Fold this sequence. Notes:
Structural class: alpha/beta
Low-confidence stretches: none
Distance between the termini: 37 Å
Strand order of the largest sheet: 3-2-1-4-6-5-7
Amino acid sequence: MNVIALIPAYNEAERISATVVATLGIAGVKRVLVIxxxxxxxxxxxxxxxxxxxxxxxxxxxxxxxxxxxxxxxxADADIVLLLDADLAGTAGEAGVLLAPVLADAAxxxxxxxxxxxxxxxxxxxxxxxxxxIATLGGGFEATAPLSGQRALNRRAWEAxxxxxxxxxxxxxxxxxVLRAKLRLREVPAAMSHAATGKDLAGFMHxxxxxxxxxxxxxxxxxxxx
Length: 226
C-alpha cells in the first residue's frame, strides 16, 4: 500500500520541521507532501529542508483548497492518504494508529480523537454545530471529534468525499460524505497535540470564522441531498 501524507500549512515555520520529520518516521508512510497555503514565513523552505515534497500555492486558499491541491497531486500514486495538521510537531508520529485500521481494511476512514489540552477551547459552539450536523446529515453518527483534522482515508473514502469543502468546513464534509456513501468511519484515540486556540480575542475570531465555514459546509451538504 502506498501511503502519502498531506499536510496543509499556513505560517507554520515554528513547528513544520518537527511535524515533517515525525511524519516521515511513521511506518508505511512513503511520501510527505506539504501544501504551503500562501505562507508569509519560511514554512515552505523548512518543510523542504526537513524532507517533505512541497507545493507552494500562490495565495491563501484555505484548508479545504490546500488539501484538494495536495490530493490532486498524489491521487494517481496513493492508495491511502494521511491528513495531518502542520502544527502537530513531534506528536505527528503517533498517526500510525490512524493507518492501522485502514491498512487492515477494517475502516475506510479513521479520525483521531485527541486529548483535550489544558486551558484551551471556547464554549463548544463550533464543535456542537459540527456534531449535530454530522448526526443529522450522516445517518445519526455521533462524532466524538467532528472537527479533527487528523485522518486516514483509502481511495473509496476520498473519492466519495471530494471535492473538499472550503476552509474549516473540510472535516465536517469528509465525515458526512463518507457516512452517506455507507463507508466505514472509525474514531481512534491518538496521543497527538497541536497549538491550542486560546481564549483571547484572536482565538475567538478564529472560532468565529470556523463556525461560519462549518455552517456553510453543512448548508451545502444539505442541498446535496435534494
